[in-house]
Write a structure and sequence with these properties.
- This protein is 40% helix and 15% strand.
- With 445 residues, it is α/β, with parallel strands linked by helices.
- The chain has two domains: 209 residues, Rossmann fold (3-Layer(aba) Sandwich), CATH 3.40.50; 181 residues, Rossmann fold.
- It has a seven-stranded mixed β-sheet with strand order 3-4-2-1-5-6-7, with helices on both faces.
Protein backbone atom coordinates (compact mmCIF):
# COMPACT_ATOMS: atom_id res chain seq x y z
CA UNK A 1 0.00 0.00 0.00
CA UNK A 2 1.21 3.55 -0.52
CA UNK A 3 2.89 5.33 2.35
CA UNK A 4 0.60 7.57 4.40
CA UNK A 5 0.89 11.26 3.69
CA UNK A 6 3.26 12.73 6.29
CA UNK A 7 2.08 15.49 8.55
CA UNK A 8 3.77 18.85 8.49
CA UNK A 9 6.68 18.95 10.90
CA UNK A 10 5.16 18.63 14.39
CA UNK A 11 6.03 21.44 16.75
CA UNK A 12 8.35 19.32 18.87
CA UNK A 13 11.63 20.85 20.00
CA UNK A 14 14.79 19.18 18.72
CA UNK A 15 16.52 16.71 20.97
CA UNK A 16 19.18 18.72 22.82
CA UNK A 17 22.71 17.37 22.31
CA UNK A 18 23.87 15.11 25.09
CA UNK A 19 26.72 16.40 27.19
CA UNK A 20 29.96 16.14 25.27
CA UNK A 21 28.24 15.05 22.09
CA UNK A 22 27.39 17.74 19.53
CA UNK A 23 25.45 15.39 17.27
CA UNK A 24 26.53 14.31 13.80
CA UNK A 25 30.12 15.53 13.59
CA UNK A 26 32.06 13.67 10.88
CA UNK A 27 35.84 13.52 11.18
CA UNK A 28 37.52 10.54 9.52
CA UNK A 29 40.64 9.23 11.29
CA UNK A 30 41.97 7.60 8.09
CA UNK A 31 41.35 9.42 4.80
CA UNK A 32 39.98 7.02 2.16
CA UNK A 33 42.07 6.72 -0.97
CA UNK A 34 38.91 6.39 -3.06
CA UNK A 35 35.26 7.10 -2.24
CA UNK A 36 33.46 3.92 -1.17
CA UNK A 37 30.90 2.56 -3.60
CA UNK A 38 29.85 -0.63 -1.80
CA UNK A 39 28.67 -1.47 1.70
CA UNK A 40 29.42 -4.88 3.18
CA UNK A 41 27.26 -5.18 6.29
CA UNK A 42 27.92 -7.87 8.91
CA UNK A 43 24.46 -8.28 10.38
CA UNK A 44 25.11 -10.56 13.42
CA UNK A 45 21.83 -12.29 12.46
CA UNK A 46 21.09 -15.76 11.17
CA UNK A 47 19.64 -16.13 7.71
CA UNK A 48 15.85 -15.93 7.93
CA UNK A 49 15.79 -14.05 11.25
CA UNK A 50 13.47 -11.37 9.78
CA UNK A 51 15.17 -8.63 11.77
CA UNK A 52 13.47 -5.28 11.19
CA UNK A 53 16.36 -2.90 10.48
CA UNK A 54 18.62 -5.51 8.87
CA UNK A 55 15.98 -6.67 6.40
CA UNK A 56 14.22 -3.37 5.69
CA UNK A 57 16.90 -0.70 5.96
CA UNK A 58 20.06 -2.52 4.90
CA UNK A 59 18.84 -5.35 2.65
CA UNK A 60 15.82 -3.67 1.02
CA UNK A 61 16.04 0.13 0.81
CA UNK A 62 19.76 0.91 1.03
CA UNK A 63 20.55 -1.07 -2.18
CA UNK A 64 18.52 1.54 -4.07
CA UNK A 65 21.33 4.04 -3.41
CA UNK A 66 24.55 1.99 -3.38
CA UNK A 67 25.73 -1.57 -3.81
CA UNK A 68 25.09 -3.55 -0.62
CA UNK A 69 26.09 -7.02 0.55
CA UNK A 70 24.45 -8.09 3.83
CA UNK A 71 26.28 -10.95 5.54
CA UNK A 72 24.27 -13.46 7.63
CA UNK A 73 25.15 -16.52 9.63
CA UNK A 74 24.06 -19.84 8.18
CA UNK A 75 22.49 -21.83 11.05
CA UNK A 76 23.43 -25.06 9.26
CA UNK A 77 27.10 -24.02 8.99
CA UNK A 78 27.31 -24.55 5.24
CA UNK A 79 30.28 -23.09 3.34
CA UNK A 80 30.23 -19.37 2.48
CA UNK A 81 27.94 -18.55 -0.41
CA UNK A 82 25.60 -16.06 -2.02
CA UNK A 83 21.83 -16.11 -1.33
CA UNK A 84 20.90 -13.42 -3.85
CA UNK A 85 22.25 -10.15 -5.24
CA UNK A 86 22.34 -8.46 -1.82
CA UNK A 87 22.80 -11.30 0.70
CA UNK A 88 25.67 -13.60 1.64
CA UNK A 89 25.92 -16.35 4.23
CA UNK A 90 28.93 -17.58 6.19
CA UNK A 91 29.17 -20.46 8.67
CA UNK A 92 27.96 -19.48 12.11
CA UNK A 93 30.70 -21.32 13.97
CA UNK A 94 33.63 -19.75 12.09
CA UNK A 95 32.04 -16.44 11.12
CA UNK A 96 33.08 -14.35 14.08
CA UNK A 97 36.65 -15.59 14.30
CA UNK A 98 37.40 -15.64 10.60
CA UNK A 99 35.00 -13.13 9.06
CA UNK A 100 37.40 -11.64 6.55
CA UNK A 101 38.48 -14.95 5.03
CA UNK A 102 34.94 -16.33 4.95
CA UNK A 103 33.51 -13.28 3.15
CA UNK A 104 36.48 -13.03 0.78
CA UNK A 105 35.70 -16.51 -0.54
CA UNK A 106 32.48 -15.03 -1.97
CA UNK A 107 33.41 -11.39 -2.65
CA UNK A 108 36.91 -9.97 -2.00
CA UNK A 109 37.04 -6.72 -0.05
CA UNK A 110 38.74 -3.81 -1.81
CA UNK A 111 39.41 -0.10 -1.36
CA UNK A 112 35.95 0.70 -2.73
CA UNK A 113 34.24 -0.99 0.23
CA UNK A 114 33.09 0.22 3.59
CA UNK A 115 32.55 -2.74 5.93
CA UNK A 116 30.11 -2.11 8.78
CA UNK A 117 29.89 -4.52 11.71
CA UNK A 118 26.75 -4.72 13.82
CA UNK A 119 27.41 -5.11 17.57
CA UNK A 120 30.21 -7.74 17.47
CA UNK A 121 33.45 -6.21 18.72
CA UNK A 122 35.61 -9.30 18.04
CA UNK A 123 34.81 -9.04 14.32
CA UNK A 124 35.42 -5.30 14.44
CA UNK A 125 38.87 -5.81 15.99
CA UNK A 126 39.86 -8.30 13.29
CA UNK A 127 38.70 -5.98 10.50
CA UNK A 128 40.56 -3.00 11.94
CA UNK A 129 43.77 -5.03 12.03
CA UNK A 130 43.28 -6.01 8.36
CA UNK A 131 42.14 -2.59 7.15
CA UNK A 132 45.53 -1.24 6.11
CA UNK A 133 46.23 -4.32 4.00
CA UNK A 134 42.83 -4.29 2.31
CA UNK A 135 42.38 -0.55 1.95
CA UNK A 136 38.67 -0.71 2.83
CA UNK A 137 36.96 1.52 5.38
CA UNK A 138 35.45 0.11 8.59
CA UNK A 139 32.36 1.20 10.47
CA UNK A 140 30.50 -0.01 13.56
CA UNK A 141 26.73 -0.16 14.03
CA UNK A 142 25.82 -0.11 17.72
CA UNK A 143 22.17 -1.07 18.09
CA UNK A 144 22.19 -1.51 21.88
CA UNK A 145 24.66 -1.03 24.79
CA UNK A 146 25.04 -4.74 25.51
CA UNK A 147 28.00 -4.36 27.88
CA UNK A 148 26.16 -1.73 29.90
CA UNK A 149 23.09 -3.94 30.04
CA UNK A 150 24.96 -6.55 32.07
CA UNK A 151 25.94 -3.86 34.57
CA UNK A 152 22.34 -2.59 34.71
CA UNK A 153 21.08 -6.11 35.44
CA UNK A 154 23.50 -6.40 38.35
CA UNK A 155 22.44 -3.05 39.81
CA UNK A 156 18.69 -3.45 39.28
CA UNK A 157 17.57 -7.06 39.39
CA UNK A 158 18.73 -8.23 42.85
CA UNK A 159 16.62 -5.55 44.51
CA UNK A 160 13.59 -6.03 42.28
CA UNK A 161 13.45 -9.82 42.06
CA UNK A 162 15.18 -11.17 45.17
CA UNK A 163 14.67 -8.22 47.54
CA UNK A 164 18.29 -8.39 48.64
CA UNK A 165 19.83 -5.63 50.75
CA UNK A 166 22.51 -3.51 49.11
CA UNK A 167 25.36 -4.97 51.17
CA UNK A 168 24.53 -8.53 50.00
CA UNK A 169 25.16 -7.69 46.35
CA UNK A 170 28.05 -5.30 46.79
CA UNK A 171 30.86 -7.74 45.77
CA UNK A 172 29.00 -8.76 42.61
CA UNK A 173 28.23 -5.17 41.74
CA UNK A 174 31.86 -4.12 42.19
CA UNK A 175 33.05 -7.01 40.00
CA UNK A 176 30.51 -6.27 37.27
CA UNK A 177 31.35 -2.57 37.39
CA UNK A 178 35.06 -3.31 36.94
CA UNK A 179 34.29 -5.70 34.08
CA UNK A 180 32.11 -3.07 32.43
CA UNK A 181 34.75 -0.33 32.75
CA UNK A 182 37.35 -2.64 31.24
CA UNK A 183 35.12 -3.62 28.31
CA UNK A 184 34.00 -0.03 27.82
CA UNK A 185 37.61 1.11 27.43
CA UNK A 186 38.31 -1.60 24.84
CA UNK A 187 35.11 -0.90 22.94
CA UNK A 188 35.74 2.84 22.99
CA UNK A 189 39.26 2.35 21.63
CA UNK A 190 37.99 0.15 18.79
CA UNK A 191 35.24 2.59 17.80
CA UNK A 192 37.70 5.49 17.82
CA UNK A 193 39.75 3.58 15.25
CA UNK A 194 36.73 3.27 12.92
CA UNK A 195 35.93 5.39 9.89
CA UNK A 196 32.25 5.63 10.91
CA UNK A 197 30.09 4.96 13.96
CA UNK A 198 26.35 4.34 13.55
CA UNK A 199 24.78 4.41 17.05
CA UNK A 200 21.11 3.70 17.70
CA UNK A 201 20.65 7.23 19.06
CA UNK A 202 22.52 10.46 19.73
CA UNK A 203 22.59 9.50 23.41
CA UNK A 204 24.57 6.28 23.01
CA UNK A 205 28.03 7.79 22.21
CA UNK A 206 28.24 9.71 25.52
CA UNK A 207 27.29 6.57 27.46
CA UNK A 208 30.11 4.70 25.72
CA UNK A 209 32.57 7.57 26.14
CA UNK A 210 32.93 8.14 22.38
CA UNK A 211 34.67 11.36 21.35
CA UNK A 212 32.83 12.78 18.29
CA UNK A 213 36.00 14.57 17.19
CA UNK A 214 37.71 11.21 16.64
CA UNK A 215 35.13 9.30 14.59
CA UNK A 216 32.29 10.31 12.24
CA UNK A 217 29.01 9.73 14.06
CA UNK A 218 25.71 9.23 12.27
CA UNK A 219 22.79 7.99 14.43
CA UNK A 220 20.61 5.30 12.86
CA UNK A 221 17.48 4.96 15.03
CA UNK A 222 14.82 2.31 14.69
CA UNK A 223 12.26 2.75 11.94
CA UNK A 224 9.36 1.10 10.13
CA UNK A 225 8.90 -0.33 6.65
CA UNK A 226 5.54 1.17 5.72
CA UNK A 227 5.26 -1.08 2.68
CA UNK A 228 4.47 -3.89 5.14
CA UNK A 229 1.95 -1.98 7.28
CA UNK A 230 -1.73 -2.67 6.49
CA UNK A 231 -4.55 -0.17 6.87
CA UNK A 232 -5.53 0.24 10.55
CA UNK A 233 -8.84 -1.24 11.71
CA UNK A 234 -11.80 1.11 11.26
CA UNK A 235 -14.55 -1.12 12.63
CA UNK A 236 -17.00 0.94 14.72
CA UNK A 237 -17.07 -0.11 18.36
CA UNK A 238 -20.80 -1.10 18.47
CA UNK A 239 -20.32 -3.62 15.63
CA UNK A 240 -17.42 -5.45 17.25
CA UNK A 241 -17.45 -8.63 19.23
CA UNK A 242 -17.78 -8.02 22.97
CA UNK A 243 -14.68 -7.82 25.12
CA UNK A 244 -14.04 -4.13 25.64
CA UNK A 245 -10.79 -2.30 24.99
CA UNK A 246 -8.18 -4.47 23.30
CA UNK A 247 -4.66 -3.86 24.63
CA UNK A 248 -1.52 -5.21 22.95
CA UNK A 249 2.03 -5.93 24.10
CA UNK A 250 4.60 -7.24 21.61
CA UNK A 251 8.19 -8.25 22.29
CA UNK A 252 10.58 -9.26 25.03
CA UNK A 253 9.42 -9.79 28.61
CA UNK A 254 12.38 -10.00 30.97
CA UNK A 255 13.26 -8.91 34.52
CA UNK A 256 15.09 -5.74 33.47
CA UNK A 257 11.91 -4.38 31.86
CA UNK A 258 10.00 -4.71 35.12
CA UNK A 259 6.85 -6.39 33.73
CA UNK A 260 5.39 -6.76 37.21
CA UNK A 261 4.60 -3.03 37.17
CA UNK A 262 2.15 -3.49 34.28
CA UNK A 263 0.55 -6.64 35.68
CA UNK A 264 0.06 -5.20 39.17
CA UNK A 265 -1.45 -2.07 37.66
CA UNK A 266 -3.86 -4.14 35.57
CA UNK A 267 -4.78 -6.27 38.55
CA UNK A 268 -5.81 -3.17 40.50
CA UNK A 269 -8.32 -1.98 37.90
CA UNK A 270 -11.94 -2.02 38.99
CA UNK A 271 -13.18 -2.25 35.39
CA UNK A 272 -13.21 -5.54 33.54
CA UNK A 273 -13.98 -4.31 30.01
CA UNK A 274 -10.50 -4.93 28.64
CA UNK A 275 -8.23 -7.70 27.39
CA UNK A 276 -4.44 -7.82 26.98
CA UNK A 277 -2.75 -9.98 24.34
CA UNK A 278 1.01 -10.53 24.66
CA UNK A 279 3.05 -11.80 21.69
CA UNK A 280 6.38 -12.96 23.11
CA UNK A 281 9.01 -15.68 23.07
CA UNK A 282 9.25 -15.39 26.85
CA UNK A 283 6.01 -17.17 27.69
CA UNK A 284 7.31 -19.18 30.67
CA UNK A 285 8.79 -16.16 32.41
CA UNK A 286 5.67 -14.10 31.64
CA UNK A 287 3.42 -16.74 33.20
CA UNK A 288 5.58 -16.71 36.31
CA UNK A 289 5.36 -12.93 36.65
CA UNK A 290 1.58 -12.98 36.08
CA UNK A 291 1.16 -15.67 38.73
CA UNK A 292 3.13 -13.57 41.24
CA UNK A 293 1.56 -10.21 40.32
CA UNK A 294 -2.11 -10.83 39.52
CA UNK A 295 -4.94 -12.31 41.58
CA UNK A 296 -8.10 -10.86 40.03
CA UNK A 297 -7.74 -10.47 36.26
CA UNK A 298 -5.45 -13.24 35.07
CA UNK A 299 -8.12 -14.57 32.71
CA UNK A 300 -8.05 -11.26 30.82
CA UNK A 301 -4.39 -11.72 29.79
CA UNK A 302 -3.59 -14.03 26.89
CA UNK A 303 -0.09 -15.19 25.85
CA UNK A 304 0.51 -15.77 22.14
CA UNK A 305 3.60 -16.99 20.27
CA UNK A 306 5.65 -14.56 18.16
CA UNK A 307 4.68 -14.20 14.51
CA UNK A 308 6.59 -13.32 11.33
CA UNK A 309 6.78 -9.58 10.95
CA UNK A 310 4.22 -9.05 8.19
CA UNK A 311 1.74 -11.46 9.76
CA UNK A 312 2.20 -9.69 13.09
CA UNK A 313 1.41 -6.32 11.50
CA UNK A 314 -1.79 -7.80 10.07
CA UNK A 315 -2.83 -8.72 13.61
CA UNK A 316 -1.64 -5.50 15.27
CA UNK A 317 -3.95 -3.19 13.31
CA UNK A 318 -7.00 -4.89 14.88
CA UNK A 319 -6.10 -3.74 18.43
CA UNK A 320 -6.98 -0.48 20.16
CA UNK A 321 -3.97 0.52 22.29
CA UNK A 322 -0.32 -0.52 22.39
CA UNK A 323 1.56 -1.04 25.67
CA UNK A 324 5.11 0.34 25.49
CA UNK A 325 6.13 0.51 29.15
CA UNK A 326 9.93 0.51 29.44
CA UNK A 327 11.69 1.61 32.63
CA UNK A 328 13.50 4.93 32.07
CA UNK A 329 16.92 3.68 33.16
CA UNK A 330 20.17 4.57 31.33
CA UNK A 331 20.33 1.37 29.28
CA UNK A 332 16.92 2.17 27.74
CA UNK A 333 17.25 5.95 27.70
CA UNK A 334 19.86 5.61 24.94
CA UNK A 335 17.72 3.21 22.90
CA UNK A 336 15.21 3.63 20.08
CA UNK A 337 12.20 1.44 21.00
CA UNK A 338 11.07 -0.27 17.79
CA UNK A 339 7.79 -1.68 19.12
CA UNK A 340 6.46 1.74 20.08
CA UNK A 341 7.13 2.91 16.52
CA UNK A 342 5.39 -0.17 15.16
CA UNK A 343 2.35 0.37 17.39
CA UNK A 344 1.94 3.90 16.07
CA UNK A 345 2.62 2.83 12.48
CA UNK A 346 -0.29 0.39 12.84
CA UNK A 347 -2.51 3.21 14.12
CA UNK A 348 -2.41 2.27 17.82
CA UNK A 349 -2.06 5.05 20.39
CA UNK A 350 0.45 3.87 22.94
CA UNK A 351 0.96 3.92 26.70
CA UNK A 352 4.61 4.94 27.17
CA UNK A 353 7.17 5.91 29.75
CA UNK A 354 9.08 9.17 29.16
CA UNK A 355 12.08 7.75 27.33
CA UNK A 356 13.94 10.59 25.56
CA UNK A 357 13.08 9.44 22.05
CA UNK A 358 9.39 8.89 22.88
CA UNK A 359 9.16 12.37 24.37
CA UNK A 360 10.93 13.87 21.38
CA UNK A 361 8.62 12.30 18.82
CA UNK A 362 5.26 12.13 20.56
CA UNK A 363 4.96 14.27 23.69
CA UNK A 364 3.75 17.46 21.99
CA UNK A 365 1.51 15.71 19.47
CA UNK A 366 -1.09 14.32 21.91
CA UNK A 367 -1.06 10.91 20.27
CA UNK A 368 -0.40 8.67 23.26
CA UNK A 369 -0.28 8.54 27.04
CA UNK A 370 2.87 9.09 29.10
CA UNK A 371 3.23 7.72 32.59
CA UNK A 372 5.87 7.39 35.31
CA UNK A 373 7.03 3.82 35.73
CA UNK A 374 5.16 3.04 38.94
CA UNK A 375 2.21 0.75 39.62
CA UNK A 376 -0.02 3.60 40.82
CA UNK A 377 0.75 5.89 37.87
CA UNK A 378 0.32 3.12 35.30
CA UNK A 379 -3.00 2.07 36.87
CA UNK A 380 -4.25 5.65 36.70
CA UNK A 381 -3.31 5.95 33.02
CA UNK A 382 -4.93 2.61 32.21
CA UNK A 383 -8.14 3.82 33.81
CA UNK A 384 -7.95 6.96 31.66
CA UNK A 385 -7.45 4.82 28.54
CA UNK A 386 -10.52 2.72 29.36
CA UNK A 387 -12.54 5.93 29.72
CA UNK A 388 -11.33 7.31 26.37
CA UNK A 389 -13.80 6.75 23.49
CA UNK A 390 -12.60 4.47 20.73
CA UNK A 391 -12.93 7.29 18.19
CA UNK A 392 -10.49 9.39 20.21
CA UNK A 393 -8.06 6.46 20.47
CA UNK A 394 -8.10 6.10 16.70
CA UNK A 395 -7.61 9.83 16.20
CA UNK A 396 -4.53 9.71 18.42
CA UNK A 397 -3.27 6.63 16.63
CA UNK A 398 -3.62 8.31 13.24
CA UNK A 399 -1.52 11.27 14.40
CA UNK A 400 1.18 8.94 15.72
CA UNK A 401 1.16 6.99 12.46
CA UNK A 402 1.81 10.16 10.47
CA UNK A 403 4.66 11.20 12.77
CA UNK A 404 6.35 7.82 12.34
CA UNK A 405 5.83 8.03 8.57
CA UNK A 406 7.46 11.46 8.51
CA UNK A 407 10.45 10.72 10.77
CA UNK A 408 10.99 6.96 11.01
CA UNK A 409 10.29 5.59 7.53
CA UNK A 410 13.12 3.22 6.52
CA UNK A 411 12.66 4.13 2.87
CA UNK A 412 13.54 7.76 3.63
CA UNK A 413 16.19 6.92 6.19
CA UNK A 414 18.09 4.82 3.64
CA UNK A 415 18.66 7.87 1.44
CA UNK A 416 20.26 9.87 4.26
CA UNK A 417 22.37 6.93 5.41
CA UNK A 418 23.65 6.29 1.88
CA UNK A 419 24.67 9.94 1.53
CA UNK A 420 26.70 9.66 4.73
CA UNK A 421 28.35 6.35 3.80
CA UNK A 422 29.32 7.56 0.34
CA UNK A 423 30.78 10.85 1.54
CA UNK A 424 34.21 11.41 -0.09
CA UNK A 425 35.11 14.53 1.93
CA UNK A 426 38.60 14.55 3.47
CA UNK A 427 38.93 14.81 7.26
CA UNK A 428 39.85 18.51 7.29
CA UNK A 429 36.66 19.47 5.46
CA UNK A 430 34.52 17.04 7.44
CA UNK A 431 35.71 18.31 10.80
CA UNK A 432 34.86 21.87 9.82
CA UNK A 433 31.34 20.99 8.66
CA UNK A 434 28.60 22.33 10.99
CA UNK A 435 26.94 19.60 13.02
CA UNK A 436 23.35 19.23 11.72
CA UNK A 437 20.64 17.46 13.65
CA UNK A 438 19.90 13.88 12.55
CA UNK A 439 17.97 14.29 9.29
CA UNK A 440 15.03 12.17 10.37
CA UNK A 441 14.49 13.79 13.77
CA UNK A 442 11.73 16.31 14.52
CA UNK A 443 13.13 19.81 14.36
CA UNK A 444 15.56 18.90 11.57
CA UNK A 445 15.95 21.12 8.55
Amino acid sequence: MPNPSPLPEPSIPPDPPASGHPGHLPAAPIPPSVPPTRLVYYSDQRLGSDHTSVESLFAKYLPRHLEVQVVYHDPENRPPGRVDAHRLVIPREQGRDDFLRQVSQVTPLTARDIVVVRNIFSVLANLLDARRRGGFRVGFHGSFPHSYRRLAETETLPFRERRLPAWATLPTRIRKYCEYRYKRRIERTLIHRCDAFLPISERLPPLMGIDPARVPIFPVPSGVDFALIPTPDATPEPTRESGGRRLLYVGTVDPLRGPEVLFRALDGLSRRDWTLDIFTRDADFTREVIANSMRHHRERVRLLPPLPRQELYQRMVSYDVGIGLIPPIPVYNVSSPIKILEYFACGLPTLMTPLPECELLFSRAGCGWFTPFTVEAVRERLGEILETPLSECRRRGAIGRQIVAAHRNYETMARFLATFLLSPLPPTELSQTPAPHSPWMPGSP
